[in-house]
């Protein structure tokens, strides 16, 4: 997953956020669907 390049602080927050999402994905049954959603969010 590519990380958007705003401010370094924002990037740090984004990394923490994606880590949280990954942990939720491991629990979530519909992993593939969630990964697609996260990829779409990453494009924003």
UniProtKB/TrEMBL annotation:
Name assigned to this protein: Uncharacterized protein
Organism: Mycoplasmopsis citelli
